[in-house]
From TrEMBL, chain A:
The organism's taxonomic lineage, starting at the top: Eukaryota, Fungi, Dikarya, Basidiomycota, Agaricomycotina
One example of a Gene Ontology biological process annotation: endoplasmic reticulum to Golgi vesicle-mediated transport
Organism from which the protein derives: Pisolithus tinctorius Marx 270
Name of the featured protein: Trafficking protein particle complex subunit
Cross-referenced InterPro entries: Longin-like_dom_sf, Sedlin
GO annotation, cellular component aspect: cytoplasm
TrEMBL record, chain B:
InterPro entries in the cross-refs: NO_sig/Golgi_transp_ligand-bd (IPR024096), TRAPP-I_su5 (IPR016696), TRAPP_component (IPR007194)
Coiled-coil region(s): none
Quaternary structure, from the entry: Part of the multisubunit TRAPP (transport protein particle) complex.
Family: Belongs to the TRAPP small subunits family. BET3 subfamily.
Tagged with keyword S-adenosyl-L-methionine: no
Protein known as: Trafficking protein particle complex subunit
GO biological process per UniProt: endoplasmic reticulum to Golgi vesicle-mediated transport
Alphabetical UniProt keywords: Endoplasmic reticulum, ER-Golgi transport, Golgi apparatus, Transport
């Protein structure tokens, strides 16, 4: 079971990203890429094709839960990034309507659920995960990341668009992910 | 062989002592984290606590003295004035400096107010956001709420926040030939950053509006972008 976190600046450029593999027991065993490919696929590249064809019907699969092709556990980096990007429209819709910072399950794509957290300064934390029942853990995780982000922001050399490279920040986000996710 | 070596050590000694002179209390007074590089090992030992080890609420009761602020602000204005070509330029630069403060004020202020809550909230409507600038932001930055909020009669996209005795201008007397200058452009920058962060892009400027009773009375004029009004119209 994996989690993907992206921090996005107010202009939607990524300033930090993290992939976290949960040590907690997985709800479903994740299959290797090849076993999820349709029978006609012969090359590893076909996995990407499957993912992309799923992407073109993103609105469809949004309304039909469980619909669409299950692809390689979604482990492909570019697919993950694409899903995160695709969810931004939904996040912006919801954040205009609701005044909560933590937006749970704003978007779904195949087995992925997208949760988000919007800070008052319009920085978005986007988390891709495949757990439906860990709301409390995700909320606590976002809360920790928020505190760490505020501390980063207080550094006078940091601007809203600076990529976060601090090893201390990274270590703390990982520690919180380990605890909560 | 010995000669250059000893000279070198003399040099390095003198440079060390001058560094000591520059920072009499040692390096601990700087709030920089110890600048970790990407390749630094995570488990390395640190001599002093970095920014992530500090408590964000600890400073709630300790405030910066007004004279220290006045001194720093006077240096800011002097520094900026040497590098600009006119009053407009000077105000614009003060506004930019204020913007950098404002975006931090917004994040930190909201964190202090909301982090204890289970479901932290943001402002999504304009008028409550304006009210929170008038009270919370002013209280966080200047220690007291602003004096009034007004809505322009002629233009529906203009709002004003009025401060009868703005803290940054308390020790500033503007020369007569620069009478248009308002150093509260710095404050305007703070307001602009807060509005921007909350999703209400606006052009914010500061203007002197003295009265008999309050000679340094200042109006912070907020001119909202069209998109903000259209959105407010939709969610109404």
């Amino acid at each position: 079971m994996s989690h993907h976190l992206f921090l996005l600046s107010p202009s939607d450029t990524p300033i930090y990203s993290l992939t976290h593999y949960s040590s907690k027991p997985a709800q479903s065993t994740s299959y290797p890429l090849a076993s999820n490919l349709p029978t006609w696929s012969t090359s590893a590249f076909a996995g990407t094709l499957t993912a992309l064809s799923g992407a073109s019907s993103v609105t469809q699969s949004h309304h039909v839960p469980g619909g669409g092709v299950k692809m390689g556990g979604g482990q492909d980096r570019h697919v993950v990034q694409m899903i995160a990007n695709a969810s931004l429209d939904n996040i912006e819709d919801v954040m205009r309507r609701e005044n909560a910072m933590y937006l749970k399950s704003v978007d779904k794509f195949n087995e992925w659920t997208v949760s988000a957290f919007v800070t008052p300064g319009n920085v978005k934390f986007v988390l891709l995960h495949d757990q439906a029942k860990n709301d409390e853990g995700i909320r606590a995780f976002f809360h920790d990341v928020w505190e760490l982000y505020v501390k980063t922001m207080l550094n006078p050399f940091h601007t809203a668009h600076t990529v976060i490279r601090s090893a201390a920040f990274d270590a703390r986000v990982r520690a919180s992910a380990k605890k909560n996710l | 062989m010995q000669q250059p070596h000893s000279r070198f050590s003399v040099l390095s000694n003198s440079s060390l002592s001058s560094a000591d002179l520059l920072s009499p209390t040692g390096s601990s007074r700087f709030s920089l984290p110890s600048a970790p590089s990407i390749n630094a090992t995570l488990g390395q030992t640190r001599q002093r606590p970095n920014i992530y080890d500090r408590n964000l609420n600890k400073t709630r009761s300790s405030e910066v003295s007004a004279s220290a602020f006045a001194f720093l602000f006077s240096e800011i204005v002097q520094y900026t004035q040497k590098r600009v070509s006119g009053i407009n330029d000077l105000e614009r630069r003060l506004n930019i400096l204020g913007y950098r403060v404002g975006m931090r004020v917004l994040e930190l202020m909201t964190w202090r107010a909301e982090s204890s809550s289970k479901a932290p909230k943001r402002e999504i409507r304009f008028l409550p956001a304006l009210m929170s600038i008038h009270t919370q932001v002013w209280r966080a930055v200047f220690g007291r709420p602003a004096d009034a909020i007004e809505k322009s009669v002629e233009n529906e996209d203009e709002y004003m926040i009025i401060d009868n005795d703005p803290l940054p201008e308390r020790h500033i007397s503007v020369p007569r030939d620069m009478s248009q200058l308002s150093c509260s452009s710095f404050t305007a920058g703070i307001v602009e950053a807060v509005l921007d962060g909350l999703g209400f892009p606006a052009r914010v400027t500061a203007h002197n509006t003295p009265t008999q009773q309050y000679p340094s009375r200042t109006t912070i004029l907020i001119k909202l972008e069209k998109s903000v009004l259209e959105r407010e119209e939709i969610v109404k």
